[in-house]
Design goal:
Elements: E1 22-25, E2 31-34, E3 42-45, H1 48-68
Antiparallel strand pairs: 1-2, 2-3
Length: 82
């Protein structure tokens, strides 16, 4: 039996839930991104578009790790309602 980390694409398991993200323009350029519903989920990008794409990736990786660790997902009330 093989043991170790399992790698998979979380989008194959469920529809990607929507989360509120906060874009913060940085003085030196680019944007930092926070995902309030996912503690410790931060990323950044040189442009607004890139920052949002990076946020999607960060959220996906965060959720994959929750699944891999058998941790619960954040409460539905902390997600974007749309």
């Amino acid at each position: 039996m093989r043991r170790g980390r399992v790698s998979f694409d979380a989008s194959q398991l469920f529809a990607m839930p929507k989360f509120k993200v906060i874009l913060i323009p940085e003085e030196e350029g680019g944007y930092s991104v926070q995902v309030p519903a996912l503690p410790g989920c931060f990323t950044c990008g040189d442009t607004r578009k890139e920052a949002l794409e990076m946020a999607k990736d960060a959220i996906g990786l965060y959720l994959e790790e929750l699944v891999a660790q058998a941790d619960p997902f954040p409460p539905i009330t902390s997600r974007l309602s749309r």
